Amino acid sequence: MTTPSLPVPREGLHAAELTLLDELRKLRRKLRQKGPTAEDDLTLGQRVADGVAAGMGSWRFIIIQSVLLTFWVILNVTAWIRQWDPYPFILLNLALSFQAAYAAPIIMMAQNRQQDIDREAAENDYKINIKAELEIELLHQKLDQLREQEVVQLSLAVKELSELLNRSGLCEPKPAGTTIRKRRAPTPKKSASGS
After folding, report:
1. Which burial class, exposed, middle or buried, applies to 157 when counting CB atoms under 10 A from its CB (0-12, 13-18, 19+)?
2. 110-143 b/e with 16+ CB inside 10 Å = b?
3. Which of 89, 94, 119, 169 maximizes the CB count within 10 A of its CB?
């Protein structure tokens, strides 16, 4: 059994809200058809920046670099081979400075890209919240409309039943302005001998 579709009550929403709701619905449909393609749109530089940031921001990198630096210092202090970088370790400082000079901008690029992704996610969350609010408002309007229709139908049904009862003679019509009085419960009589 199919139920008749009710018209969407949109008179309570402003034109801007309706436009926004339609745009959000179209955007949702496009995203569903497209699917997630964020990783496919990355350039080579963005992929490299992400890889460097992920690698340099790991415990594995810190442990490997610490082992290499310790090994470098021990070899140069004990002079097992030849001291290619004596005590102030100028060559080591130069290598670490190069590493920091190149790593910092690459990591900043990865952070900026992540910030853009987070900003876009926040905008999408905001749009979803607005859409949910508008959809809930529409649902409230539909429920109110259904409730009003139900009250009207119940009133008509009560009226028809009253007319049927009046015609059948089972119930007499009440004069206008009369109310139904409730009967009081009988009060117990006091016995004369008891008090």
Report:
1. exposed
2. beebeeeeeeeeeeeeeeeeebeebeebbeebee
3. 89
d(CA 139, CA 151): 18
Taking the CA atoms of residue 159, residue 161, residue 166 and residue 167 in that order, the dihedral angle to the nearest 10 degrees is 110
The structure tokens listed for 181 are 């009085």
At 82 the pLDDT is: 78
How high is the pLDDT of residue 154? Answer: 95
Region 25-29: what's the mean pLDDT? 80
The three state secondary structure string of 27-75 is HHHHHHHHCCCCCCCCCHHHHHHHHHHHHHCCHHHHHHHHHHHHHHHHH
- The residue ranking higher by pLDDT, 85 or 80, is 85
pLDDT per position as a tens digit, 57-71: 899 999 999 999 999
Cα(93)–Cα(69) distance, integer angstroms: 11
